[in-house]
Structures are given as C-alpha cells and as structure tokens.
From TrEMBL:
Residues 174-345 form the Tyr recombinase domain. Residues 71-152 form the Core-binding (CB) domain. It comes from the Bacteria. Pfam families: Phage_integrase. GO terms for molecular function: DNA binding. Keywords: DNA integration, DNA recombination, DNA-binding. InterPro entries: CB, DNA_brk_join_enz, Integrase-like_cat_sf, Integrase_catalytic, Integrase_recombinase_N, Tyrosine_recombinase_XerCD. Gene3D superfamilies: 1.10.150.130, Intergrase catalytic core. This is Tyrosine-type recombinase/integrase. One of its GO terms (biological process) is DNA integration. SUPFAM superfamilies: DNA breaking-rejoining enzymes.
Amino acid sequence: MTRDAMKIRLKYVVEDVDRHGNVRLYFRRNGKKIRLPSPIGSPEFLAAYKTAFAGESKAKSAPKVGQVIPGSVRFLYAEYYKSAMFRELDPRTQKVRRGILDRFCQHKNDGDKPFALLQPKHIRARRDEMMDRPEAANGMVKALRQLYKFAVRYDLHDRNPATEIEYLSPKNADGFHSWTLAEIEKFEETHPVGTMARLALALALYTGQRRSDLVQLGKQHVRDGWLVFTQHKNRNRSPVRQEIPIVQDLQRIIDASPTGDLTFLVTAFNRPFTSNGFGNRFRKWCDEAGLPQCSVHGLRKAAAARLAEMGCTEFEIMAITGHRTSKEVTRYTRAASQKTRAESALKRMTAERK
C-alpha cells in the first residue's frame, strides 16, 4: 500500500518535516498532535493510530462538568422543566420539586445514569435509605412519579417505575394537630377582637381555607355577604372557585378589625402577607398564647372537624374547604366522624329499647 493511499484511508494523519529534513508522522485532531511511529502502514504505526483515534473519540464524547448527558435522568427532568406539565404548577411547587429532583440526581451521580434503566428496585432502595424521614421519602417518590408520568405522556418512555413504589407511613399519621375548643379559647383570650391575630384566627376558622388563600382574601372578594374567590392552589391547572357565606361572627370581627386596602390581613407595614410570611407570623401568635403545638393549617383541619361534629356530610365539608376528593376530608374528620356516628348509634339503640 502506498503512502498516498494510506493518507486517503486514515483520517487525521499528517506529515511534518523537522529542521533536519526528517519526515515525522502525527495524529492531529481538535488542535492536538500525537506522534506516530514510522513507517506509515507498519504494525507499530497502525496500533498507535488506533490508540490515538480511540482516545480522542472518548475524550470528545466525555461530558464536561455540568453538561447534561442525552438520555440521562438529568436530561429527562431538564425536558420536564420545559413542559406545560411543569410550568402550570404553582411557583412554590416548582421550587420544591426542583429541589427534590436535584437532590435525587446528586445522590451517587444518579442524574448521569440512563433514565430508561431506572427500575422500581432502585427507587425503593433510595426510599428505604430515607426511612428516618418518611415525609421526604414520600416527596421523592411523588416527584419521580410526576417526572415519569411526563416521560410516558410525551412518548419518551413506556412505563412509570415510580408508580410501583409504596409510600412510607408518616411519623404522625394524623398530620397537623387539630385545634381543640379549649385551644381556640386560649388564643382568643390572648388576642382579643380588634387585633390582626384574632382576625386571622376567625378567617381561618370560619372559612377553612389554606394560608395561601387567607392572605389573598380582601374586600374585593365580598359580594352580598359571600366570599367569592378562586383558590390559590392549582389555580393555573384546575382552578377551584369558592363561594362561602360570611357568618355573623366572622363579619363582626372583620368590622371591628383594621384591614388593608387589598387584603384583610396585612403586616405591620400595612402590606399584604406572603404565604410563608403569614405562616411565620401566625407561629409567633400561637407561641404568645402558649400553643406551640398549634398552627394555622391545624385550624383548617379543626374547621372541617367541627363541621363533621355538626353532622355535615363530606360533600358539604368539601364545599367549604374546596377539596376535590374526600380523601383529605376523611383524614381531617376521622375522629369527629367517629364521635358523631357513635353518638347517633347509641341514640338509636336507646330509642329502640324504649
């Protein structure tokens, strides 16, 4: 085989002449030069050429720091972030989900592994590593379910391995502490009518709404004695429009309290609360009343429980709280419903004996 023929067949081989007139062979690619033994076409030359070609190809394909590998888990969730499924989520939900998926990818470089090879056993093993934090483990499983739901919906994958993973039982199966009547009275004694704290308690107790809704309620939502508004949660994907009557006790407290122009609840600087800011402020109000176990979310649960004790059906309670399914309402009202059913059953037994 002639030297010219070898030049045509072998890519990136060049000849350089040194200052003494000697011809030297090099493998040159991407600005790099690797010396090759002479003569061209010899076994030594071909072996060195093969090694140089393989090494440069591997170096070229190796990902740079921070580079997303096509087909990896990190690639999948980068595509997920661009989708309508993700963009329609509430900004706070987006932030939380990003954090969960980022931590998943950083764990043992799982983000660089092919997403198509992720099996239920891999997710279950990661979940079990987090057994001391069941809420965080369940949050990870939920985030992966949504990630692979996107993959299936957009024809990037044919199955959702995360749906086969069971949630762990939370440390506190009943969730947030539900306020008792005694605790409500203790809070009212500490924060009388006319204070922002008492107004916040009344709004939460008599509307049963989340704190993200409480901070947006204002005079513009009042229509003929009703609060008419769209709940903040899922407002972009599946909005829930609420119409709740303003009971007499709530109206009395609103009339006696200082309120903002756009929202009933305002900060010391007469500005609307953020959801997190309101949660922190309410936490201080509870501590001032000696109620460290209580929270604003617990009032939503207490409102549902009180309605259940009054004999309201789950659908009637859902009309107040805005829940789409009865699953959460059942969890909120389990104890109250048991008490109501027990009382009703014993009344029937007594009546039958008489």
